[in-house]
Amino acid sequence: MESIPKTISFRTDEITTQKMEKIKERVFEGREVSNALILRTAIDFLHDNYGKGLSDTEDVFEVVKAYVKVTYLNKPRVDFGALDDFIYDLRQVYDEQDIGETLEIAKLYDDENPITLAQLIRFNDRKLPETFLRIMEVDEEEYIELSDDMLADFLLTKFSDEEFKIKAKRLFKIV
Fold first, then answer.
1. Tell me, what's the pLDDT at 51?
2. 173: closest CA among 104, 98, 94, 112?
3. Directed axis angle between helix 57-73 and helix 80-96, to 10°?
4. I want to staple 114 with a disulfide (CB 3.0 to 4.6 A). Which of 59, 78, 104, 173 is the partner?
């Protein structure tokens, strides 16, 4: 059966465009290629690999654990106690949080793409602002009972305090 090409049109956001550029750099080694080729390659890869190997989250966890171990073992001095503690904590997070929660909270510490105040108050999961406030040493009783809208307002109020804002920028590079 002959494949008849079809033309599709769609819009992407800035993040998706950046991801496409990274694929272009890594897969095509920076050669000039069309966005259509990048998308076809990504779809083919997903189709061919879905349900295999690293698609199981337990396998992904084991690979992450291996990277952590190798990172520690490559240091000049190895603190096996710290390594054991870290692996234990990693397992706790893996067991207690789903991928969405983990990715949401991880936005707090991202050197390449620092979180903005707008992202912080437009959270997808309450754990993001709650983790932020806990690290900022805000008493949990001040915000734990608040609705999502009230929590966003609470964050804005906290950011009106100059000392709080400076500490947030220092710890999280929040912009």
1. 54
2. 112
3. 160
4. 173
Per-residue model confidence as pLDDT tens digits over 73-100: 888 888 888 888 988 998 888 888 877 7
What φ, ψ does residue 107 adopt, rounded to 5°?
Answer: -60, -20
pLDDT of residue 48: 66
Which residues have CB under 8 Å from 169's CB, separation 6+?
A: 175
Q: Which residue has 């992450």 as its token pair?
A: 64
Radius of gyration of the chain (CA): 21
Q: What is the 3-state secondary structure (H, E, C) of the chain?
A: CCCCCCCCCCCCCHHHHHHHHHHHHHHCCCCCCCHHHHHHHHHHHHHHHCCCHHHCHHHHHHHHHHHHHHHHHCCCCCCHHHHHHHHHHHHHHHHHCCHHHHHHHHCCCCCCCCCCHHHHHCCCCCHHHHHHHHHCCCCHHHCCCCCHHHHHHHHHHHHCCHHHHHHHHHHHCCC
Quote the pLDDT of residue 35: 77
Q: Which residues of the chain have pLDDT under 50?
A: 53-54
